[in-house]
Design goal:
Blueprint: H1 3-6, E1 28-29, E2 33-34, H2 42-47, H3 60-68, E3 75-81, E4 84-91, H4 104-112, E5 115-118, H5 125-136, H6 145-157, H7 164-167, H8 170-179, H9 193-203, E6 207-210, H10 214-222, H11 226-242, H12 246-257, H13 261-265, H14 267-270, H15 277-303, E7 308-313, H16 323-329, E8 333-337
Length: 341
């Protein structure tokens, strides 16, 4: 899958999504970092027919229809230790509006949860401000002129302002572009499942916490040196320009929507993202190394009282170094909760 994308629900009265949903079009980048910025304006999309469709807040009728048609999607595990129960839930960071409404099993878990723990929580205005400040901080050497021109052309093709090149580091620009690759097919970061869960949990009075800091996520994305950061930008642009970015993104989204764990577990075979030593090093940073930290922090929250719903990108939950396996190794009883389809 694209490196940038790998890097990528209650039955009560529905919580209305914010009216400025278009301004959240950059709210999630990769499977790694949530980011929001009010940089894309409605006029940008309206003036260029080739632009991806603008995100519009759903009407009351659309939201109610989505609530009536809700079914469970994604992947849920129950984890138990010390007489307490918590849950792991695999999300996706680009989705469709109708997918943001939880089905009955997930809705019940949300009602039972004492804490919703996310990778980052940028529905929190303070956390969002911190994210924007950190993302805009200078660092690293400038891109070579040809690579900068490619990045600017890609920003223009996605109807994003060229000012983004001045405000965000190149790796973050590339990852943002990767996360936006599915917008023409309706797969948009504005409908990130993590964001929807955060909004619903807050509406229900459930405590929402972040498992990571923005600095930790940026370090995983950018790599150990400038040369690796440049390679990341170049590889991401190669995938976007060639059209290779979209099929794996689409396949992950479809497997998530069907709760098709077997397909997702074969991701290392079909992702086209582990071919070189640099690819494998990137995925080790984005998944394996972060998983070890996530498991430790989820364990601490569970020991503090249990009833934690830890909702993270679905790729964090598969394989021998996924969170279910890591918590089982810590002595948890781990059981997948099946969804009826």
């Amino acid at each position: 899958m694209p490196r940038a994308a790998a890097a990528l629900k209650l039955r009560s009265s529905p919580a209305r999504l914010p009216d400025d949903m278009l301004l959240s079009a950059l709210r999630r980048f990769a499977a790694v970092l949530a980011l929001a910025a009010g940089l894309a304006t409605p006029a940008m999309a309206a003036d260029a027919p080739s632009c991806p469709p603008s995100v519009q807040a759903p009407s009351v009728a659309q939201q109610r229809a989505a609530e009536r048609a809700a079914r469970d999607r994604g992947f849920l595990w129950r984890v138990e230790q010390g007489g307490r129960t918590s849950w792991l839930y695999g999300t996706i960071h680009v989705a469709r509006h109708e997918w943001t409404v939880p089905g009955p099993r997930l809705a019940e878990v949300l009602r039972q949860a004492r804490v919703l723990a996310l990778e980052l929580d940028l529905a929190d205005p303070q956390a969002l401000a911190e994210a924007l400040r950190a993302a805009a901080a200078p660092g690293g050497r400038p891109l070579p002129a040809p690579l900068r021109e490619r990045l600017l052309r890609r920003l223009a093709a996605e109807c994003l302002p060229s000012a983004l090149a001045e405000l965000l580091p190149p790796t973050l620009q590339a990852a943002t572009l990767g996360a936006l690759a599915g917008r023409r097919e309706g797969l948009d970061p504005a409908w990130a499942i993590d964001l929807a869960l955060s909004q619903r949990a807050r509406a229900a009075g459930t405590r929402v916490l972040a498992l990571e800091t923005l600095g930790e996520q940026l370090a995983a994305l950018q790599g150990p040196d400038d040369a690796e950061s440049l390679r990341f930008v170049e590889r991401t642009l190669d995938e976007l320009d060639s059209g290779r970015a979209l099929p794996p993104l689409r396949r992950i989204a479809e497997s998530w929507a069907r709760a098709d764990l077997a397909t997702l577990e074969r991701w290392p075979v079909w992702c086209d993202c582990l071919d070189t030593p640099a690819d494998r090093a990137l995925m080790t940073r984005l998944l394996d190394e972060r998983n070890a930290t996530l498991a430790t922090r989820i364990d601490a929250l569970h020991r503090d009282g249990g009833a934690v719903l830890a909702a993270v990108g679905a790729l964090h939950l598969i394989g021998p170094r996924g969170l279910p396996a890591l918590l089982a190794a810590r002595g948890y009883r781990v059981e997948r909760v099946p969804f009826a389809h």
